[in-house]
Amino acid sequence: MPRLKYASILRVLVLVGLLCIWIQIMLAASSSGLDRDGEDMMNINETSEQVLALVPQELHKYLLVHPKNVTGNSTERAGPKNITSIRRAIERSNDAQTIYNEDIFGPVQNDTVIIAIQVHTRITYLRHLIVSLAQAKDIERTLLIFSHDYYDEEVNDLVRSIDFTKVMQIFYPYSIQTHPNEFPGVDPNDCPRNFKYNKALKQKCNNALHPDVHGHYREAKYTQTKHHWWWKANRIFNQLQCTTTHTGPVLFLEEDHYVAEDFLHMLALLRNTADKTCPQCEILCLGTYLKTYQYHLNSDKVEITPWHSSMHNMGMAFNRTVWASIMAHQDQFCAYDDYNWDYSLLHLSQNRGAVGKFKVMLCKGPRVFHIGECGIHHKKSNCNASTVIGKVQKLLQTASSHLYPSRVTATVTFGGAKHNKKLLKGNGGWGDIRDQELCANMTREGRQMKKYFFT
Ligand SMILES: *[C@@H]1O[C@H](CO)[C@@H](O)[C@H](O)[C@H]1NC(C)=O
Ligand SMILES: *[C@@H]1O[C@H](CO)[C@@H](O)[C@H](O)[C@H]1NC(C)=O
Ligand SMILES: *[C@@H]1O[C@H](CO)[C@@H](O)[C@H](O)[C@H]1NC(C)=O
Ligand SMILES: *[C@@H]1O[C@H](CO)[C@@H](O)[C@H](O)[C@H]1NC(C)=O
Ligand SMILES: *[C@@H]1O[C@H](CO)[C@@H](O)[C@H](O)[C@H]1NC(C)=O
Ligand SMILES: *[C@@H]1O[C@H](CO)[C@@H](O)[C@H](O)[C@H]1NC(C)=O
Ligand SMILES: *[C@@H]1O[C@H](CO)[C@@H](O)[C@H](O)[C@H]1NC(C)=O
Ligand SMILES: *[C@@H]1O[C@H](CO)[C@@H](O)[C@H](O)[C@H]1NC(C)=O
Question: Could you say which cofactors this protein requires (predicted)?
């Protein structure tokens, strides 16, 4: 009798112990999610004197961090955000399709260069991207479209303070921020990533039938980037009123990129060169990942090669003709079990039938740089934005006499065997049927006329 009692007490203790561990894991998981946003959102003055010294005085305003009212009231940031009002603001903004500064710089033309910038929460980098854009030649003829998946007044204020060209904001409407407890965010009844298939079936969690190629269930934060990329491209080419007859290039940037002052000059040069010598070069690319830069050798060199996701995803540009081809094979993007937008595009590229793979014409001396290389997975402590930005500034200063080449010389390469390998299985993370459906749904929305609000 006492032995039995002892055993059952032990069992209870073990169960309680397991429960505690489980709760801890869940807490850790959710707080790391929070940390990520919180950490990235921290808008401290990280700009060192050296970096500031190389930024013209009149652009310092974009780096100006308004100190938080620490003494007064900090509950505003820490406390829960009012989702209802954020959703309403997003809907209203998307309906209005406001183009700021159109009165100063004139309307969007058919051949206006559209620069699409995908923004999450890394405002420090965004500030520096804006400073680099401000210094680019011909920037006043472009339209900057900032596409946000996180609604934040500080970011909005920064974007709306841009006065050197036309600016538009679009807001991804299916974000985790605005869907905290439901798909495409995390539904409490979704299967946890590591649930085994049989266990999931038994528990009847939402997506039990749809693990990915590796047997894992979806993680909302990893699917969001691909959704956002796809939504943004659809929004720009298919839905906005101002692009109805647009045939010019759309250049894709991200919040932690940084441009050289001649990037628009290079884009035009690549387009002209491609039109004359490589009409099958559908994608133009201004960035490459290099360890060392040799502008004195490479500033006027371009390369023609099969487009590859991991090498040519930074500062790429294409026009509506190319988009039409992507649209024609959209299921290769949406139904492919890979949460990376670039690998999904590579899969599409490899499955276009007779047209063949995308060819890219790229700058061997890059004009777009990745300054946020500390990435999401690193801690702030070993990651100092100023250090990387300072390096890029110095590099461009040294290269300045090699910028604005009047012509370029192209070499044709066929890419290594590794890069021509046919993708078979995807990287996973995109097995959930709801993700595939949401992606497909995004292409079904048609052109939307601007709504005017009178307040
Ligand atoms: C940021 O800090 C630097 C020195 O680290 C200072 O010179 C600069 O004025 C500060 N900038 C702003 C906008 O607060
Ligand atoms: C900071 O908060 C205090 C008290 O709420 C307020 O009086 C003050 O105007 C605030 N300062 C700024 C710069 O917002
Ligand atoms: C901060 O603001 C909240 C609501 O606006 C208020 O309830 C709270 O008392 C304020 N706290 C401080 C320290 O002023
Ligand atoms: C959120 O804001 C709306 C209007 O802006 C208001 O009606 C609603 O009560 C607010 N909800 C919360 C939880 O504060
Ligand atoms: C823009 O393209 C449309 C349709 O192709 C055409 O009707 C219009 O004249 C063009 N506008 C300009 C300014 O070129
Ligand atoms: C759009 O891109 C295609 C493919 O690169 C090119 O052939 C075409 O000339 C471009 N259209 C315009 C209007 O520039
Ligand atoms: C970042 O590095 C610069 C020098 O490269 C230094 O001046 C600055 O204080 C550092 N900032 C932080 C936040 O560590
Ligand atoms: C996609 O659209 C269909 C039809 O409007 C709708 O029933 C379905 O719920 C949508 N799916 C997702 C995941 O948004």
Answer: Mn(2+)
Q: Are residues 226 and 278 in the same domain?
A: yes
Q: Is the pTM of this model over 0.70?
A: yes
Same domain, 24 and 55: no
How much distance in Å is there from the Cα of 82 to the middle of ligand 4?
6
Q: What is the per-residue pLDDT across 186-237, written as a single tens digit (0 to 9) for each? A: 999 999 999 999 999 999 999 999 999 999 999 999 999 999 999 999 999 9
For 330-365, b/e burial (b = at least 16 CB within 10 A) is bebbbbbbbbbbbbbbbbbbbeeeeeebbbbbbbbb
Q: Quick check: CB of 72 below 6 Å from ligand 2?
A: yes
Same domain, 3 and 134: no
Q: CB of 194 closer than 6 A to ligand 3?
A: no
The DSSP code for 186 is -
Same domain, residue pair 133 and 184 = yes
Residue 235: which of 216, 250, 215 has the closest Cα? 250
Judge whether 169 lies within some domain. yes
Number of domains present in the structure of the chain: 2
CA-based R_g, the chain, Å? 24
